[in-house]
Amino acid sequence: MTTTRFALFAAATLFFCAYAEDYPLGPDSERHPGVPQGTVTKYSWKDSKIFPGTERDYWVYVPAQYSKEKAAALMVFQDGGGYITDTGAWRAHIVFDNLIARGEMPVTIGVFINPGVMPARSTQSLGRFNRSYEYDAIGDRYSQFLLTEILPEVSKSYNITTDPNLRGIGGSSSGAICAFTVAWLHPESFRRVLSTIGSYTNLRGGNIYPSWVRKTEPKPLRVFQQDGDHDLNIFVGNWWIGNQDLASALEYAGYDTTHVWGTEGHNSKHGGSILPYALRWLWRESSKPIVASKGGGGERQFSTMFLDPAERWQLVSEGHKFTEGPAVDKQGNVFFTDIPNNRIHRVTVDGAVSVFKEDSGGANGLVVGADGRLYACQNGRKRIVAYTMDGRETVLAEDVTSNDLAISSKGDIYFTDPNNHRVWYLDSKGAKRIVAENLGFPNGIAFSPDQTLLYVNDSTSKSIWSYQIQDDGSLTNGEPFYRLELHDDFMRSGADGMKVDAEGQLFVATKLGIQICDQPGRVVAIWNKPDRADISNLLFAGPARDILFVTAGDKVFKRKVRRQGTVPWEVVKPPQPRL
After folding, report:
1. Do 537 and 495 touch, CB atoms closer than 8 A?
2. Of 37, 41, 46, 241, whose CB is crowded by the most CB atoms within 10 A?
């Protein structure tokens, strides 16, 4: 909760914004006798592996109260050079001095980073200016630059906390959306966001954020926004509307958020004048952890309809190389593959993990059929096989490459062949034929609950194809029906395994998290990943099939959900969808 002091300050600020054209700096942006002054040191960075060939300056502010014996809080700013001049609009280092001295901010090290520039080869040629490429992109590239290059370098000299509750990030314009993107992708590293005149427009896809905030399971973030009603309105969008749209989405989803609107344009006048208030609000009660909202109160907020906010991901198994292909048997036990280790593991209902099969032939996708056997894509030996529960193997098809498979209640099998861009059909008598071709990279595959439609995930695009299954097993009337939402940069593609619940919703493992599509083909909710590793596949398991298991890198996780999964041996007619 905001204190009375904050509320009065906000009210005064809003009154001032409505009736004045000027935004003077207040006393917290000025130096005062007796206030300890921190130091600002300039550095340069020319060794980036994330943005090769670029050079940039950055500055590190260290408060006078800092001691290497105690880890300091952290605040990062993009466009850093403009924030730490004594006569500029921001004067962030002076504001830090004043607020830290009064205990209104913790002892905080500031890192102020300029965007990269690839220098020109000569005075007659042009360099490359990376600012929009780095800041406006909504992928993970800049986050990785920050987390794996700059901050580790700064941490060699200063004791900076790793507690995300004591780490903030901010910026203005494109630097603001950059700050939001870093915290959005990495709440395990940053949980406080300062955004002034943020560029939540379609410079590089940032206009999607309000939609993502509404759909995505809430993250543990605190967000401050500022903008003015004379901000930019150009070919990529309207900044004033974009900021209001994001603010509405944050409130809808129940975030700890506030905003201060004014009358200025795309400049730092208003943002600079309220910087002290914004930092007080962001860092209030800094000793208390920032936690995720339990969800807002909006109509059809599916992230909390599908997911109990009180439940969290639990580790099931770790120490593998790469987990994939989860399957469930009739008792609710789970099987998964560890492809590089050439094993299939079993997780019993009571949580015990054991090896089901050594020398699995590079098995990937798994599914348990109505006959109780475990079917596998044994891609290392170019076969489709089935195992009895005592591990005896039967070869069903040879000379095929495969990734994932689905089996019907009648024993008909469909499997994806990504390298050859096609889908195979294997009938219950062992006859096989190609039933879909010319796909980019067919990966995950699943039936609709009534087993009349087949879904095929094309990982090179944002599409999941929907086909109608004919009596002879052929696929007709294919459409790229489901359109997923994915980040750019490192996260351009990557949708993988998928499963369907009894209501007909499609649950898809993506680099963004678990995306849930309704029957009309729309992404209606996104669940956060349990770990930094991307989710490769997922499964509904347990006796009631209401526990979601995911394979993610070298680990397997589970989480109780408010949905029940489908299985091959049960045919279910889903309800008519709301359109």
Report:
1. no
2. 241
